[in-house]
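Saturday, quiet lab. Running sequence design on the structure tokens for the scaffold JK sent over.
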């Protein structure tokens, strides 16, 4: 099943769950109805859809750069966008030291691709181009807009649950009895389920973007090497008390990044054996050596992956080894 179909099925499932909770609230709260709450949910979604790009740019400290300011970055993005068959995205540099990159926007024509100041200091030209190909593939796949739609549902369900169980409810009185508590518990359970669905959607789109980077003309070993360097550099940051604060501030934005910045310390232990010549990179031979091997995660590792925004990096690199 294609990524796009799976993503839109998730959207349908998420709003089906939301609608069921809203019907319960409309039936038993005594105020308004399912229709009015559904309209409120769609209005909230529309507002987030419209202002989301501006919030991301502000939180990530993005400075938009012209072609004269960074001709090489513009040349890379222009070529990759042409190969991907999409309009050239707006290009920015995020003034944060965490090495990473991200893409956002509402549509293909509204696409924005950004690299952090930190990533420019650690990747080679070929590795950076592979990362940019990954981000441009997110724009081509339109998955950023879908993630925005999906992420609204858990927030609405959490608000419904909080209002019914701990707040004064929708009718201006305490909602702690009978059906209200049951609906509140149902909304809370739905919040956890839908949040897991958002994380699942975030993970499956990464594999597609990795493949998209290769399709735009980047040999797989360059993205594999870039992921290895990003994990290693982020692990170094996490172990540096002076730099850890910035990493913690970015935790809430990690779904936008190329890799999960929360798991770097654990993942670098899994990746270190890939760099057999200790060069700090992963070349074509080292990546091909992984192709014949099986990546086995323990039960606890599989369970923990359910709660992450990105797939396990070793699994992603294994997937890249199969794209030659």
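Result came back. Writing it out in full:
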């Amino acid at each position: 099943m294609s990524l796009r179909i799976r993503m839109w099925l998730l959207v349908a499932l998420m709003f089906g769950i939301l609608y069921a909770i809203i019907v319960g609230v409309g039936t038993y709260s005594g105020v308004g109805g399912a229709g009015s709450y559904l309209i409120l949910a769609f209005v909230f979604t529309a507002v987030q859809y419209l202002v989301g790009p501006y919030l991301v740019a502000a939180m990530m400290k993005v400075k938009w750069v012209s072609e004269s300011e960074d001709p090489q970055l513009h040349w890379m993005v222009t070529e990759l966008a042409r190969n991907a068959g999409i309009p050239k995205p707006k290009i920015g540099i995020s003034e944060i030291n965490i090495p990473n990159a991200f893409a956002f926007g509402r549509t293909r024509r509204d696409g924005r691709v950004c690299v952090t100041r930190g990533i420019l200091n650690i990747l080679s030209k070929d590795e950076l181009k592979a990362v940019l190909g990954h981000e441009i593939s997110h724009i081509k796949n339109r998955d950023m807009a879908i993630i925005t739609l999906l992420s609204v549902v858990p927030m609405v369900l959490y608000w419904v649950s909080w209002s019914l169980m701990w707040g004064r409810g929708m009718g201006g009185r305490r909602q702690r009895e009978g059906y209200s508590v049951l609906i509140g518990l149902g909304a809370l359970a739905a919040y956890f389920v839908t949040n897991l669905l958002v994380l699942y959607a975030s993970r499956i789109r990464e594999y597609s973007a990795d493949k998209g980077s290769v399709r735009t003309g980047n040999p797989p070993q360059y993205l594999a090497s870039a992921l290895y360097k990003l994990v290693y550099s982020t692990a170094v940051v996490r172990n540096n008390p002076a730099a850890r604060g910035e990493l913690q501030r970015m935790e809430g934005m990690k779904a936008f990044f190329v890799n999960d910045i929360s798991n770097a310390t654990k993942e670098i232990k899994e990746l270190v054996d890939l760099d057999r010549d200790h060069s700090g990179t992963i070349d074509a031979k080292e990546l091909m050596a992984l192709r014949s091997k099986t990546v086995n995660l323990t039960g606890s590792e599989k369970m923990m992956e359910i709660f992450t925004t990105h797939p396990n990096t070793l699994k992603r690199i294994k997937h890249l080894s199969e794209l030659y």
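Notes for JK: Residues 169-176 have pLDDT under 50 and may be disordered. The two ends are 22 Å apart (CA to CA). Ask whether to fix the surface positions before the next round.
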